[in-house]
Write a structure and sequence with these properties.
Largest sheet: none
Shape: globular
Distance between the termini: 22 Å
Radius of gyration: 20 Å
Strand content: under 5%
Number of helices: 17
Helix content: over 70%
Structural class: mainly alpha
Number of strands: 0
Length: 406
């Protein structure tokens, strides 16, 4: 069971690249939480918080394919420097707005958040395109599962850091901390890429006559399933923030998010040691069941609600998250044409951020007008839709899987 992990650790430069790709993403799960506290505290409502969070992820999604295409065609280091500078500037401005302006000016924060999202460093896309260039032979079977499992550590560390920073120093400082982590992580990842001699693209892509990747029906279905998955996860994240804030214990949001991440990490590490092809739809169904289990333990269905009960459900339900993410990433890598892997993951960024963008405003409205249980129910519906879509994605042939890795 531990063999895949030993083989990955033995690949030159891969452990360092994986570590920095994770550190370069640690801000991603923490930033929405910090921004939610920032805007909700500024305006006194979850609705604007959902809109601003959605604007941030919309910016990430709009620029995803362009940054992915640039990564397939130009040096990674140059792209990382430019985007890190833009993102750091945007996050700094976003944290300053509630300090300088009244709550009625929150639409300006949505505009700043959108521009900031446009400049998000493409560490995730570059990492997922680079790992297969290093991991060959048996090691390639586990690379995406290991990456997805380790990513779940981010969902422990990132929200915990953000929630702690909010409790100790305030929401603006927590937002700035997230921005600093993004910049430092991007610079560290840039150094690791250059050390591994992966700064230049693997190949110069052949001309495809302007053919878009979205012409591939199965790839679009796989991307759509990822959209639904992230919509469900983003909604639950906001539900956790709202529940903790309503209880008067904002730091508890980080604790609950960490428990959810622990369950996901355990599930991913166990699945990463298994052999055989991942069943995408089956893993999505298990994730849906995990999300659905959260609904009955939240207000108004359970009143008063218990942090112990909620935490226990999140740990158990989280077990399916990393395996589902890994199956989706593996499927997308297998379906991507040669030389366009980063672009495919750029489209994945677009679809997943569109999922969060569409989910967060609705989640905020449900939290304001119905309650956390209703918002979690909407998350369950999104996950179920993703399961149905995943069932339509064609199974890749063995040579496609090998080609995506080698």
């Amino acid at each position: 069971m531990l063999r895949p992990y030993r083989e990955l650790a033995a690949v030159p430069h891969l452990p360092r690249l994986l570590l920095w790709s994770l550190l370069g993403r640690v801000h991603l799960p923490g930033t929405p939480l910090a921004v939610s506290f920032l805007i909700a505290g500024w305006t006194g409502s979850y609705g604007p918080a959902g809109v601003v969070g959605g604007a941030l992820t919309l910016g990430m999604g709009v620029s995803g394919p362009l940054r992915g295409r640039a990564a397939d065609r130009s040096p990674a280091g140059r792209l990382l420097l430019a985007t890190a500078a833009g993102y750091g500037t945007g996050i700094t401005a976003l944290g300053l707005l509630p300090v300088l302006l009244p709550g009625a000016a929150w639409p300006l924060a949505a505009a700043v958040a959108f521009l900031t999202g446009l400049s998000t460093p493409p560490v995730t896309q570059l990492g997922r395109a680079a790992f297969p260039r290093l991991a060959t032979g048996p090691a390639h079977q586990a690379v995406f599962t290991v990456e997805a499992s380790m990513q779940e550590v981010l969902y422990i560390v990132g929200p915990a850091l953000a929630a702690t920073a909010v409790a100790v120093a305030g929401a603006p400082t927590a937002t700035w901390l997230s921005g600093a982590l993004a910049v430092l992580g991007a610079l560290g990842f840039r150094h690791a890429v250059r050390r591994a001699c992966l700064d230049e693209p693997a190949t110069v892509p052949r001309r495809h006559g302007g053919r878009t990747l979205l012409a591939d029906r199965s790839l679009v279905l796989a991307l759509s399933a990822a959209l639904c998955l992230v919509a469900a996860l983003a909604s639950i994240d906001m539900v956790i923030v709202a529940w903790a804030r309503d209880q008067g214990t904002p730091a508890m949001a980080g604790v609950l998010a960490a428990l959810w991440g622990i369950g996901s990490t355990v599930g991913g590490l166990v699945v990463g040691g298994l052999t055989g092809q991942a069943r995408f739809a089956r893993r999505m169904l298990l994730l849906t069941l995990g999300v659905a289990a959260v609904v009955p333990v939240l207000p108004p269905l359970t009143q008063p609600s218990s942090v112990w009960l909620i935490g226990g459900v999140l740990v158990v339900g989280g077990v399916a998250i990393a395996p589902a993410i890994a199956a989706g990433n593996t499927r997308i890598a297998a379906l991507a044409p040669d030389g366009r892997t980063a672009e495919a993951f750029g489209w994945m960024s677009t679809f997943t951020t569109a999922g969060a963008t569409s989910a967060l405003p609705m989640t905020g409205w449900l939290l304001d007008h119905v309650g956390p249980a209703a918002a979690a129910g909407a998350a369950t519906a999104a996950a179920l839709l993703g399961t149905l879509v995943a069932a339509l994605v064609r199974e890749p042939r063995a040579e496609q899987v090998d080609g995506a890795i080698n």
